[in-house]
Amino acid sequence: MDDQARDRFMEWFAHIQPALRAYVRALVGRQADADDILQEVSLALWKGLDAYDASRPFLPWALGIARNHVARWRRTQARAPRALPDGAEEQLAAAFVELEDELDGRRHALRGCLEHLGDQGRGLLDLRYGQDRELADIAQERGTTLNAVNKSLGKIRRLLADCIDRRLAQEGGA
Amino acid sequence: MSGTAPLDRLLDAWSDGTATETEVAELGARLAGDVRAARIAARHFTLEDGLREGCGRPAAVLARRPRRPASRRRWWPGPVAAIAAAALVALIWWRWPDMAGRDTGLPLLVGEALVDDEPWNGRGPLPPGALIQTRTATTLTYPDGTRFALEPGSRLRLDTVGMTTGDLLMDGRFTAQVARQPAGHPRYLRTGEARIEVLGTRFTLSRIHGRTDVAVEEGRVRFTRSVDGSSEELTAGGSAHAHWSSLHGTLVPWQATWDWRLDLPTDDTWLTAPAVSDGWQRGPAPIGCDSDLATVWGTLVPTRKNQRAPLVFRARHDFQLAGDAMPDRLRLRLEVDDGLVVWLNGVECLRLNLPAGPLSAGTNALTRVSGGYLEHVCSVDPTLLKPGANILAVQVHQYGTRSGDLAFALELVAP
Questions:
Q1: Of A25, A88, A98, which is closest to B48 when you measure between CB atoms?
Q2: What percent of chain A clears pLDDT 70, i.e. is strictly above it?
Q3: Closest to B303 (Cβ–Cβ): which among A23, A76, A107?
């Protein structure tokens, strides 16, 4: 593969990395496991340069390799980790491909929405996503129930999703 | 939960790890059968990923400026970042004599990378023999001003003894700007297939799938192929490559099918028996577990109940050799995590990272191979081969009971 093709690969990889990361994290759940798999997938993509047909879209190829890695990772786990039934992971990958540009926009819009979130909400998000803590753990620390934490997180996510929708609508109408 | 649960509740339960089996099944069915549900899920998981990225990084990241369009993005982070990085390197370089001494010969690293499996903290020179795995574009700057710009996904092992044998590029690609070296003291670089001798120049070196490529932009380098010792001097605009398999007759290819099993035998008959008995499994190399060697390309062996790798496994590969084509040279290239013994037709021809003497299931490798695998190239006595059926056998050992990875792959060629 020539230099130009390699440069193109680097550019494509930088572009699809967020979608790839979101997809693997969606399938795997635990952040540390997802990060390990992502590292392997990145390496596999790099090693598989020669096998990649540059005339075809890059993201579906990358997501396919990621799916294989997740499957292999599951087989190596003593306790079978959670897995979506047949067809769901493929359909989810197809949605990531179809919405690639929109999801990129949502990612940027999220940053603006987070700035308007209150301290309480930020604290909860930091525990769940920044520190990758289990819900039960958070509930214990906050002296509340798992169900309450579950509901609070769900509410914050919906608020943020609404905020993102509004921002994208404003940008689209501007 | 009933079959009509709201999709967002199912996604929440999935994301938070609280979903029941019924909920997982329902979520899966909805995603598989409804394109709109899959789109909603993709938005949900993108939001979650954004939250992980936003919450897991400094607050400044949340307010960073919008990204440039994909078509304009390059690995180089832009002039401001470049100046900042250069200033950082210059500052550390200025302070370096106080920190470690200029004669260490060890580089500074700017970028995001694992060093010996740990994220590098960015302070001070790298340790000798360090294994660097780049996650982003990464620059190594040596005390003499030599710079290597490594691409993401590259793996480079630093020389363990100054600059006598040279840093080893295991995978990936980098561009080198080598400062003028003292007369009679060239800088060396290595890959599995070649050695590069540099006096001061600019060139690009890559290693992908066991093929080494070098392209010289300025100055001169000497490129020597490991397998046959052939050498050529390259000047500006020149290029060369070395590919192990394409140059030679391959007796045992890298991805050959092997018979393997996890237990150890009571005697050595398996090394020479005409065929394997019951209880063996078959699969292509690389063989092992929790190693990119096996996970990406080859055969996975099962882990133990505690998710650790098995302590030992053995494998053998049978191959035929025509009587009129007996080679007079044999070369073995292998990658292993952690140690192994190789037999050719029942005769031990290599023992790597294992103690001398009899081996048992409790024999540990001498050193732990971290962050990848041990790469080795050596000659093998060609008189061990015989016309007709030949057997190559290996026994792979773990470093310790707590290690999670174990793997090997090898290639036997007749130059």
A1: A25
A2: 90
A3: A76
User: Which residues of A fall within a CB distance of 8 Å from B41?
Assistant: 26, 92, 95
Pairs across A and B, CB distance < 8 A: 206
Helix (H, G, I), strand (E, B) or coil at A138: helix
Q: Is residue B284's pLDDT more than 50?
A: yes
Q: Read off the pLDDT of residues A31-81 as tens digits, 9 standing for 90 and up.
A: 778 888 888 887 788 777 777 777 778 899 899 989 989 988 888 877 767
> Is this prediction's ipTM beyond 0.90?
yes
Give the pLDDT score at B2: 41
Whether the CB of A155 is below 8 Å from some CB of chain B: the reply is no
Contact A43 B63 (CB under 8 A): no
Would you say the pTM of this structure is higher than 0.90?
no
